[in-house]
Amino acid sequence: MNGLTMMLIAIVVLGGAYLIYGRYLTKKWGIDPNAKTPAYEMQDGVDYVPADTGVVFGHQFASIAGAGPINGPIQAAIFGWVPVLLWILVGGVFFGAVQDFAAMYASVKNKGRTIGYIIEVYIGKTGKKLFLLFTWLFSILVVAAFADVVAKTFNGFAADGTKILGNGQVSMTSILFIVAAVALGMILKNNKFSTGVNTVIAIGLLVLCIVLGLAVPIYFSTGFWHLFVFIYIAIASIVPVWVLLQPRDYLNSFLLLAMIGASVIGVICFNPQMNLVAFSGWSVNGNTMFPYLFVTIACGAVSGFHALVSSGTASKQIKNEKDMLPVSFGAMLLESMLAVIALIAVGYIATDGAVPADMTQPQIFASAVAVFLEKLHIPASISSTLITLAISAFALTSLDSVARVGRIAFQEFFLDSSIKDEDMSPMLKVLTSKYFSTAITLILAYALAKVGYASIWPLFGSANQLLSALALIACAVYLKKTNRQGFMLWVPMVIMLAVTLTALALTIYGKTTALMTGTSASVAGDALQLSFAIALMILGIIVAIQGFNKLMGKETKEVKIEG
Q1: What Å distances lie between residue 217 and 67, 171, 378, 394, 397, CA to CA?
Q2: pTM higher than 0.85 for the full model?
Q3: Crossing angle of helices 68-76 and 361-373, rounded to 10°
Q4: In this predicted structure, what is the pLDDT of residue 453?
Q5: Which residues contact 401 (CB under 8 A, 6 or more apart)?
Q6: In principle, which of 36, 224, 257, 409 could form an S-S bond with 136, CB 3.0–4.6 Å?
Q7: Which pLDDT does position 560 carry in this prediction?
Q8: Residue 535: partners with Cβ closer than 8 Å, 6 or more residues away
Q9: By the 8 A CB rule, do 92 and 84 touch?
Q10: How far is residue 317's CA from residue 248's CA, in Å, rounded to a whole number?
Q11: pLDDT band per the 50, 70, 90 thresholds, residue 417
Q12: Is 115 helix (H, G, I), strand (E, B) or coil?
């Protein structure tokens, strides 16, 4: 197998899925292009803000991708390229894209409310509380991990104190992106230019930022960048979406699409050979394919975080219901395409069928694509820096969204629809304040990033995929309660439950054994992992049981809060 053949297979499968399966779901569930969407009905200038299809698509794609579709396939490549490719394509089409579309559809049909509110109305208040608690804990994990990734990418100094030019250029360009995003937000807000004019302005700002960033690098330590990133996401999660979230994601989407487009062209021109074996066995390095493969490759196949973005932020910006298919289903399939490119990259870099142990996943991806692009006469040093910039942009835009999602989950946990704002107690007003909820979320995430997030990073995949299973259950219940067909969600949700509960059970068994036998390399780290694993498993099982009870129930009365 060579890279070009793999690329063509992916394009045919993913493109065909959008044209055939995506339209099939649209027909089965029903789209009303004349309906007034929550972006208009609930417009508040902060979270509910109507945006053009391209802007919302940019937000959705930049937010859901992160570094996941690059890291996951490269890590899972130890099993060979066949199982990785199959899971990306099958998972991306029948698991991930369906979940993202269903989550956004259910949210738009319910006044732009989150999956947590969908669970409250269609499953119960207890289920909602538990799901929001799960979401909040998950958001803390993601913020801690991605913030540290970004800070280390921006770190301007090597261990010996020498300056790292590429990191200095990436950090300066990223700061300029933030400034340019605010400027673009003001332009989009105060002027009614056509989509073409807005695109030209955005691309012009993007190019200017890159040119200046490459010319004027800045150098600060990882500690400084930790503080900078958390201050930035604290602001980004509070200000109106049109100020920073929408325009930044819109800007970054051009960079990310350019990276994917250049990578595709590079693969076509270079046609790299796959130096990975097709299949290396059911168990590799002590990791069994089930559940390790399906937990490791999340973004690119299916990711619970996507459901939070689809229902937490993007659904509040949809101008027309017909935009949901390209924004949710389409963005997921594009992310699967990126995962395939990552697989081709590691397949090319691999030596004697083995993945390099001395390179990080972003380094493997950037190095391989830089080689591919040399066929286009682009210097490897420049292309490698730009690819690293794009990867950091993925992570930073995910931080924007997940910090806001975590803040909203904390607020919703304490909100009760039966209590009016004027009747809230002083304590309840504090707990539901966007400032307090942001502060408590980010303070805990910062402590985790500085002290021991790496100890619980292995739980990220399991928590993310369990979140996907819970979101699928919630959407399946919604579709049943509103007399819509939801059978296409059943197989994905059952499989993801089996995968994640198995992974968590193995983690609990392994950490318990290590702590009891005294073989633990880090008692504090393993105890932390064990605590999180138990909490996540209990929360997930309870919400899943409540959801299945509703799915198996005999109720036929339609529950409807749709606007």
Answers
A1: 23, 7, 21, 20, 21
A2: yes
A3: 100
A4: 56
A5: 59, 63, 245, 308, 309, 312, 313
A6: 409
A7: 47
A8: 137
A9: no
A10: 15
A11: low
A12: helix
